[in-house]
Specification:
With about 650 residues, this protein is an alpha/beta fold. About 15% of the residues lie in helices and about 30% in strands. Strand 13 and strand 14 form a beta hairpin. The N and C termini lie far apart (about 90 Å).
Length: about 650
């Protein structure tokens, strides 16, 4: 009885607990649903973040593609086609239609006609899309969308503001061969005289922001006479130094002659500049005809076949002819050295590249591009012989012609074959350089003597242009053994990286054993740390730290630098051809203490090709430029913006 009552009471109390389990299950389920929802949200957000990170990374690589594409354009690997050529009258491969740093930073040349964008973006050289005109699409443009695709755009800037102005002045150096450093010279006696005076140009700044300044002058000639005048009995040499101070410090020499003839009421003498075109720090100086002066009294003097000058010069006349104004009254008929000058190229650029990735992702990279890592390799003449007449300077006595020198004196034997030619006429430009350049007047005299002497071992070849002392025009890397050695170390590292370095004790490819670079494209770099016998083809840049011996026939297109004390020699028959620059600048960094900024610190150069066949040494600026192709337009750093 009591048990039944107790059970009844217990059941009545538990009626209030009915449904508690359901509530508990619902609460636990809610907590589980919340946890699962949070987990799903976290997973979804993480997936979105991963997607955005991938898109951003893809946009980053697209921006990198933009920088590399701009560098590819600057290396002239992109050829303009119609109608985008800058000069439709010239082929796409003409220099007028090739890009440079100046053209890259000018709207009229960087962008295609009709491009209204205010930034230089290389649209003339890159394929910006018609549907997305602000970008270059990577991949198939037909499937590209801004939510699913890859693209880039670039902006090119000139950070140093180079190319707007040029500041220059002139001064005469060795104005006349027999009266050095004089501004004036007079011929004749008594009442019949003729006087030529050069008036230098003081520091002048010209605006070249349009690309070229015309009608500037580099001083003037004042040519007067008294009575019946007088004759110039011999060709009278002059040179004018054009000193650039803005934007870079450099010197270019304008050389020439007053040709023989009379100066008076009936003047027959005339001026022959060595070249009409002169290139300096990226600017081109082009001498202009005088007002009223027309061909044949003015203009390019490059007859074909050339006229051989009378003895003792034996040089073929080439250059730019001017008939000067002559007057009996000083100042009434001046002859200005008129010219045009183009804007210099910047030495570096800033490239800002924006990469576009999927889902609207964007990345911007900024990079500095340097034009030339080696500050402009090259030399002022096709054959440049750097160094004193004997070494050590001050402790040796130079050998004067007609006495033949012996090592270690300066030695020059130009060859006796009638197939030998030295030409300063640029194959690419209308420019004439000294075919052979030295850095010492005594060496100039030695070369002149060896080219014009008579006898069984006389020179029987051809010289186009006039030999000269080019010390004032040497680029920085050739001004001292120290500078040259620093440059060669960089070239050595480049050759090692490309597998074209042959160290001491390593035999380089000899006759028929492979090429040194590419002779067709004039590219490649080879560094031979020792002597070399060369009798094959080559191109680009060849460095030889020992003696270079040409054997038999050979062909090389580009730049050759020889620093060994043995210089250059020639053996065997056949013919050889060099189109570019060949530099002999011997030094011994380990054996001499003189490495300062002085060409007298070099050893006396040696050049002897008397033991071989003909040689054809011709300047070709295009081959030199091609040889530098792999050594230019360096990316100096990339920063993410």
């Amino acid at each position: 009885m009591n048990k039944q009552v107790a059970r009844s009471r217990s059941n009545k109390c538990r009626k209030n607990e009915q449904g508690a389990a359901l509530v508990l299950v619902l609460m636990i389920s809610f907590l589980l649903i919340t946890a699962v929802g949070a987990l799903l949200l976290e997973a979804s957000m993480n997936t979105a973040n991963m997607t955005d990170a991938t898109a951003e990374e893809q946009a980053y690589y697209a921006a990198e593609s933009g920088i590399q594409s701009a560098v590819n354009v600057l290396r002239q690997n992109t050829v303009l086609s119609d109608p985008w050529r800058l000069d439709l009258t010239k082929p796409a491969t003409d220099p007028a239609n090739k890009i440079n740093y100046f053209k890259a930073t000018r709207l009229s040349s960087s962008n295609f006609p009709g491009d209204t964008n205010a930034s230089c973006r290389l649209s003339r050289w890159m394929n910006y899309d018609a549907n997305f005109p602000d970008r270059v699409i990577l991949g198939d443009p037909a499937t590209y969308t801004d939510r699913n695709g890859f693209a880039y755009s670039v902006v090119v800037e000139n950070p140093d503001n180079i190319g707007n102005v040029v500041t220059y002045s002139t001064d005469p150096v060795k104005s006349y061969i027999d009266t050095p450093l004089n501004l004036s010279k007079t011929w004749g006696v008594g009442a019949d005289t003729a006087t030529i005076t050069y008036v230098p140009k003081t520091s002048t700044t010209v605006d070249v922001s349009s690309g070229q300044a015309d009608g500037i002058d580099f001083g003037k000639w004042v040519i007067t006479y008294t009575g019946a005048g007088a004759s110039i009995p011999v060709r009278t040499k002059f040179q004018i130094n054009v000193n650039i101070s803005t934007p870079y410090a450099a010197t270019k020499v304008i050389r020439g002659f007053f040709e023989t003839g009379t100066i008076g009421p009936a003047t027959t003498a005339w001026i022959l500049y060595d070249s009409q075109v002169h290139v300096i720090v990226g600017s081109t100086i082009t001498l202009s005809p005088l007002p009223g002066c027309s061909s044949p009294s003015c203009g390019i003097y490059d007859p074909s076949p050339p006229d051989l000058l009378p003895l003792p010069d034996l040089y073929y006349r080439i250059g730019y002819r001017i008939t000067p104004a002559v007057s009996a009254n000083p100042g009434s008929a001046d002859t200005k050295v008129l010219a045009s000058i183009t804007a210099p190229e910047p030495i570096r650029l800033v490239i800002r590249s924006t990469g576009f990735g999927p889902h609207g992702a964007r990345k911007q990279l900024e990079s500095f591009i340097q034009k030339n890592y080696f500050n402009g390799l090259g030399a002022p003449s096709p054959l440049t012989l750097i160094g004193p007449p004997c070494t050590p300077v001050g402790l040796c006595v130079p050998v004067i012609p007609p006495v033949d020198p012996v090592a270690p004196n300066f030695m020059f034997y130009p060859g006796t074959s009638n197939g030998t030619r030295y030409s300063g006429k640029d194959v690419l430009l209308k420019a004439f350089l000294p075919p052979i350049g030295m850095t010492n007047d005594l060496n100039v005299n030695r070369v002149h003597y060896m080219l014009t002497r008579s006898g069984a071992n006389k020179f029987n070849g051809e010289i186009y242009g006039n030999i000269a002392n080019v010390a004032d025009e040497l680029p920085f890397w050739l001004q001292s053994p120290r500078n040259l050695d620093a440059t060669l170390q960089l070239l050595k590292a480049t050759a090692q990286a490309s597998g074209k370095y042959y160290g001491p004790g390593v035999t380089p490819p000899n006759s028929g054993g492979g090429r040194y670079g590419d002779p067709i494209t004039a590219t490649g770099i080879t560094y031979v740390d020792g002597p070399l016998e060369f009798s094959q083809e080559g191109g680009g840049i060849l460095i030889v730290t020992g003696q270079l011996t040409f054997k038999g026939g050979f062909t090389f297109n580009g730049l050759i630098v020889v620093t060994g004390a043995g210089g250059i020699s020639r053996t065997g028959g056949g013919s050889g051809t060099l189109q570019g620059n060949m530099i002999v600048a011997p030094y011994n960094a380990a054996g001499i203490s003189c490495m300062a900024n002085n060409t007298n610190c070099f050893l006396a150069p040696r050049y002897d090709i008397s033991g071989g066949g003909g040689s054809d040494i011709v300047y070709n600026s295009n081959n030199v430029a091609n040889g530098l192709g792999a050594l230019t337009n360096f990316v100096k750093g990339v920063a993410e913006k």
